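Please predict the structure of the following assembly.
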Amino acid sequence: MEFRMMFHQVGSIIYFILTKNGYVRKILIFIITILISFVIIFIVYNKLDCYIQESKSSKVIPRLDELKIYTYGPSRPSSVNNDLIAILSPEMSLQFILRLKLLDVSFADNFSTTLLIMHSNYLSENSLKRLVNNIKRPILFLKVSSIFNMFPENFDSCRTKSNWQIRGKWNYQLMIRFWFKIIFELPQLQEYKYIMRLDDDSQIINTWFNIFDEMRIKRAVYFANDVIIEEERRLPGTMKFKQVTLEYQKQNNITVKQPDMLQKAFGDDYILSYANNFEVMQMEFFQRPNVRHWIETIDRTHGIFKYRWGDAILRYITMALFAEQHEVLHRSQYNLSYCHKKCRWPKVTSISLERLNK
Ligand SMILES: Nc1nc2c(ncn2[C@@H]2O[C@H](COP(=O)(O)OP(=O)(O)OP(=O)(O)O)[C@@H](O)[C@H]2O)c(=O)[nH]1
Ligand SMILES: [Mg+2]
């Protein structure tokens, strides 16, 4: 019925054009031709876009071992314990450098823990100079832009629609994948025993004792931040992770290390998670064959890309499945303050700038 009406309308337009005098008719035909051409170009471009992109970009898949750690300025003595504070950030603003200065002040490790800055944009000589002149601990750099171009096997990043775009079509999801999987595979980090993640919008506040030492003493595999909740209503597809986990557990005959935690983690319409903008991970734990198998399996579902399963829920469930309760320390057990996003950042004033420029 609708089709017949449309047909009728198109017929009326054609009749209208044909019955106009020569001059008006030519103009109308011209306008319609232009409009139709635009529509055709738009359709063809959309269909061919991925082919064009694929043919333009090199077929060589970036390799993790090609990334090179580098330093700037004179070397400094680092922790004998092979601990690392790792920050992933696109760039290095003045604000960011001031925050890192605060980290030096707050974290009582005698400036011995190495700081690793994993950046994707080019860092100018000035930024590097500012950073090493203002931060007392050893600093390493790793350019990780190619990681933001590495997708799981059989995932079509061009033809798949992204439901969350920040800094690029898939950057947010690739950031999640980075903290869930890639960080443990980086050949450049294999010498490190404990890695603290601290996001560039997070800050440790007041004085913190050396929590790496505490983890060693307690033989902990993870230092957790607050427990938060991810809801299906806010992020549709979240609950699919529950199904996938329970199936995985059954199929692989997993003896869950913290059954109570796992049971409470899954509500009907929410999943609990660790706010892992700050966390400390023991590398060895995340490289155990059973944990690796789980990480690889979840990665192959493409759930991070399809439903934006976050590293926060993924981490929480990983802990429930594979870590003993006594192996997980919690920030809330200690008097350690922290903030994410709602931090009162130091203002970049002319005085702080002057100090940074020294
Ligand atoms: N190099 C690089 N770092 C990124 C990119 N996207 C996110 N990051 C970093 O990854 C960390 C986590 O990213 P956020 O955007 O804060 O993620 P989030 O905390 O889950 O989300 P928010 O609640 O919006 O803060 C931050 O330190 C970011 O700077 C990216 O495209 N490139
Ligand atoms: Mg954040």
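Residues 201 and 341 are 5 Å apart (CA to CA). Residues 88-90, 119-120, 148, 167, 171-172, 175, 199-201, 277, 341 surround guanosine-5'-triphosphate (ligand 1) (CB under 6 Å).
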